[in-house]
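Thread: Newbie trying to understand structure tokens

Hi all, I'm a second-year student working on a class project, and my supervisor (Dr. K.) asked me to get a predicted structure for one chain before our next meeting. I've only ever worked with sequences, so writing a 3D structure as a token string is new to me. If someone could post the tokens and maybe explain what I'm looking at, I'd be very grateful. Here's the chain:
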Amino acid sequence: MFDFYPEKTYGRNEVMARPSPVPAVNGVYFWWFKDIPPGVPTDGCITREGFTLLYVGISPDKKGKPNSRATLKTRIRTHYSGNAEGSTLRRTLGILLAKESGFPLRRVGSGTRTTFTHLGEQWLDRWMELNARVHWVADDEPWLLEKQLIVGITLPLNIKGNNHVFRPELSAMRRKAMDEAKLLVIADETGFSRRFKIAAV
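---
Reply by user tm_fold:
Sure, no problem. This is what the structure looks like when written as tokens:
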């Protein structure tokens, strides 16, 4: 079905270059990691030259959905340089790495969005630059291939449709991080709380 040992994987700097090597088409993308976030089990995972395949994603999610105009290029670049509000992968990585980074999930701006704040997202950018690589396969209906991949290979960071033993724990960690974010004072995008900013004026 698929060669899990691609000739090349791409780092953050390559993906974010202009022009980007990532095509603006439908497809499946595969994320490989050098340093494994704490607690993530890797038994049965596919490895390649010191990197471990932990997650697959697709773009678009499904034909006709609101984000169905997304492409491999837009989604992969979002994962590499966006924030936790727009990237499930970044949210998961940031939560797993929160003790190392010192940046927990926070409500920001108006309080309707949750990210790791600007500084935390920059920290995650650097971590991904050092530890994450990606490759992709073009496919007109990637949601069909995604189902086969999640059932057929070991992917501890995928949640939807995944029966991996780590899924319940990861889901619980994500819920806990969201619950804790609701208890924190809303921060601006830089990470300073509104309360601090008002007091400092």
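A couple of things are worth pointing out once you decode it. Confidence is low (pLDDT under 50) at residues 194-201. The first strand starts at residue 27 and ends at 33. Feel free to ask follow-ups in this thread.
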